[in-house]
Amino acid sequence: MTALTHSPLLTDFYQLTMAYGYWKLNMHEQEAAFHLLFRKNPFKGNYALSCGLATVVDFLTNWRFCNDDLAYLGTLKNAFQEPLFTPDFLDYLAQLSFTCDVDAVPEGTVVFANEPLIRVQGPILQCQMIETALLNMINFQTLIATKASRVCRAAQGDNVIEFGMRRAQGPDGALSASRAAYIGGCVATSNTLAGKLYDIPVRGTHAHSWVTAFPTEMDAFHAYTDIMPHNTVLLVDTFNTVEGVKNAIKAGKKLRENGADLLGIRLDSGDLADLSIKARKLLDEAGFENTGIMASNSLDEYVISDLKQQNAQITSWGVGTHLATAYDQPALDGVYKLSALRDKKGAWNYKLKLSEQEVKISNPGRHQIRRFFSADRYVMDVIYDLSLGMADTPEVVLLDQSMQDIRLDDYDGFVDLLEPVLRNGQPVLAQKSIHTLRKHAVDAVQQFHNSHGDAPYSVSLEKKLFELKENLIQEIRE
């Protein structure tokens, strides 16, 4: 992230007007608890993959109002052309630093709708002001990591490379997408800056323009193999794909004369299944059995699955637009809700948002997620309140259309998912490498699919929390 994106002004303006209101009413130091969650699993699937936490930690630990931030706020006027914020408030912001506690689900964890990915606890003004930035960072990266996971699963172990920078939503969208796609399971990216910033492997060969810059395709291939003998993947569909494969084989034979080899060819148009089968036959007959066939061109998990069913002879996949933009679902419906407020006596007062839509009624309290296992199988996730706790044999209410009340006793073990990340604004966990996060994500998705496949997964509220919520709803409505 840059100094620009560390600014507290990376927020919706109403966060600042509310912060001013809390300050004017001397509420700004009152302790609050907020939770970030999403309401529906993305891509009509049955899971998501948490991502973006490292970006959040970097943002929060550098969260400061700079002089030019305050100077800008000082220029803002109300409807009567008077300063919107008083000098005393701007002076308060000038000395403000982030002092909240943050607990979160680790990146690369399989997560589900309606359970908190992050809990923020601290002065309400600070909790409020970071809302928009956290949603921006977690929503997008979780969405892209989930998409990448789905694409990689469709590829059935083949390498998937993220190719989406040129069609991503701006430079930061491209960088965030490359990071999330790698955590989600991609093996590399074409985004060189993402490679530098995040230590992601980078891959790339040449474009059609390289071929058309030379008198013939053969001239272009020979020129490229001379310059990049140990990085040769040739794009073969500039003019005629089958002829392009034959020319690539000729270039490959020259490479072998010089002690190198043809690593692969790339198909970027046409009937990818048919062309890959023809290309494989030509390559094998010429003795290039180990030369890979990469495909690109508007790929996603559905196209890849279809090509697999057609017995396409593709060994790696360059996935761009549909991955980096989450083409079929452009946003995750993440929300950030106040759920508890501590009074002057130190007691927590539970809060919720009421709605005519059941899914939009928030959960009160300070939450933790307990994930229950039986051997390696996911059994159930239970959301419970830290103050109310949970029994050894929990009674829970399923958060599905049935709202079934059950006793959970068939499990071997459990883990609480929300881990301490910041205390008093300072990191308390060592940051994991992006390669460790990727391995965790790939393993977690594999474990989940081994036990659940595409079947729905149960998320529930601990019964005491559910009853508390129902009582609060009744009180408010009365």
Overview of this protein structure:
39% of the residues lie in helices and 20% in strands. By secondary structure, the protein is of the alpha/beta class. It has two domains: 256 residues, nicotinate phosphoribosyltransferase, CATH 3.20.140.10; 118 residues, TIM Barrel. The longest helix is centred in the first third of the chain and has 24 residues. The chain is globular and about 80 Å long. The chain starts with a helix and ends with a helix. It catalyses: 5-phospho-alpha-D-ribose 1-diphosphate + nicotinate + ATP + H2O = nicotinate beta-D-ribonucleotide + ADP + phosphate + diphosphate. InterPro entries: Aldolase_TIM, N/Namide_PRibTrfase, NAPRTase_N, Nic_PRibTrfase-Fam, Nic_PRibTrfase_pncB, Nicotinate_pribotase-like_C.
Estimate the global geometry from the Cα principal axes.
Answer: globular
Q: How is the biggest beta sheet arranged? A: 7 strands, antiparallel
At the first level of CATH, what is the class of the largest domain? Answer: Alpha Beta
So, the CATH homologous superfamily of the largest domain?
A: nicotinate phosphoribosyltransferase
Mean pLDDT: 96
Helix coverage percent of residues? 25-40%
- Gyration radius, rounded: 26 Å
CATH third-tier fold name of the largest domain: nicotinate phosphoribosyltransferase
The first-to-last residue Cα distance is 48 Å
Secondary-structure blueprint:
Layout: H1 3-6, H2 13-24, E1 31-38, E2 48-49, H3 53-61, H4 67-75, H5 87-94, E3 101-104, E4 110-111, E5 118-123, H6 124-129, H7 131-154, E6 159-162, H8 170-184, E7 188-189, H9 192-198, H10 208-212, H11 217-227, E8 233-235, H12 241-257, E9 264-267, H13 272-285, E10 292-295, H14 301-309, E11 316-319, H15 321-324, E12 334-342, E13 348-350, E14 367-374, E15 377-385, E16 395-398, E17 405-407, E18 413-416, E19 419-423, E20 426-427, H16 434-452, E21 459-462, H17 463-477
Parallel strand pairs: 6-7, 6-11, 8-9, 9-10, 10-11, 15-21
Antiparallel strand pairs: 1-5, 1-12, 2-4, 3-5, 3-19, 12-13, 14-15, 14-18, 16-17, 16-21, 19-20
Helix pairs in contact: 3-7, 4-5, 7-8, 7-14, 8-16, 11-12, 12-13
